[in-house]
Amino acid sequence: MQLVLGTWSPSINGTPRGPLYGFPGPVSDIATRAALISSYDRRTRNPHWVAEHITPESLARRDGDRKNSQFLEDPAVPAKFRALLKDYYRSGYDRGHQVPAADAKWSQAAMDETFYLTNMSPQVGEGFNRDYWAHFEDFCRRLTLRYPSVRIVTGPLYLPKKDPVDNKWYVKYEMIGTPPSVAVPTHFYKVIFAEDGRVGGNVAIGAFVLPNAPIDNAKPITDFEVPVEAVERASGLEFANQLPMQRRRRLCADTTCALVIKDYSERQKAFAKGRSASS
């Protein structure tokens, strides 16, 4: 077959040469926005990954306020593949930012773009999105006290679990929505690149995989540290193939990897109030 308008060249011996009526895919919807770049997975209605870049200067500005933002379906994604607001309605899961709104306070427009559902995944709320995960996001921001440039890639994972009965490994995850269209990840990853600010300088890399479940705030973040290769193997993505080995440092050896536990109770109350209002 040939993808030529108005013509078709038959294959030899019935062997197909290509799709006549359109390339099936898969297609990744890439969005380049003020505060992030994202790749969207049409099958799971989750991002593959969302990348951001934060600096002391970007975090110092306070021109954006999340009270002025609202969750939005992404019009850049074809309607039949979009995650919808109603998919999350009474699902029991938060619309969990991959790039946090707090990382985009430097511009209201930039913050607003973090509220597209292409930057969201279903996350357990209490004990995770509103607690441990929020402290982890704060840890990433605090890295700018040590490093002048921090790049972060965040996304969902769907990891296998061994069945205790037959001793085999299975990937199992919940779907939400009507019809069920949005996958609930089993885990989330962050791959962090903390740069020393010099051209061709050292880059401290940290990779972390956290379960989409309540986590005790006393648990050290280092318990979730993994090799970058482990995230690549699980996600099918590559994160540092253009970074020479001689420039790489291990983040948690280069600086202290520890969370500062903050009281988010007032934020949680405001979130719950806003969530019920939008339900």
From TrEMBL:
Major location category of this protein: mitochondrion
A GO cellular component annotation in the UniProt record: mitochondrial inner membrane
- UniProt entry tagged with the keyword Thylakoid: no
| One example of a Gene Ontology biological process annotation | apoptotic DNA fragmentation
Extract the SUPFAM superfamilies matched here. Answer: His-Me finger endonucleases
Return the Gene3D superfamilies for the record: Extracellular Endonuclease, subunit A
Keyword annotations of the record:
Endonuclease, Hydrolase, Magnesium, Manganese, Membrane, Metal-binding, Mitochondrion, Mitochondrion inner membrane, Nuclease
Names of the cofactor(s): Mn(2+); Mg(2+)
* EC number of this enzyme: 3.1.30.-
Query: What are the DNA/RNA non-specific endonuclease/pyrophosphatase/phosphodiesterase domain coordinates in residue numbering?
Result: 32-246
In this chain, Mg(2+) is annotated as bound at N129
Q: Which residues form the ENPP1-3/EXOG-like endonuclease/phosphodiesterase domain?
A: 33-246
Q: Which PROSITE patterns match?
A: NUCLEASE_NON_SPEC
Q: Which SMART domains match?
A: Endonuclease_NS, NUC
Q: What binding partners and quaternary form does the record give?
A: Homodimer.
Q: According to its UniProt record, which protein family does this protein belong to?
A: Belongs to the DNA/RNA non-specific endonuclease family.
Q: What is the recorded name of this protein? A: Endonuclease
This chain's source organism reads Trichoderma longibrachiatum ATCC 18648
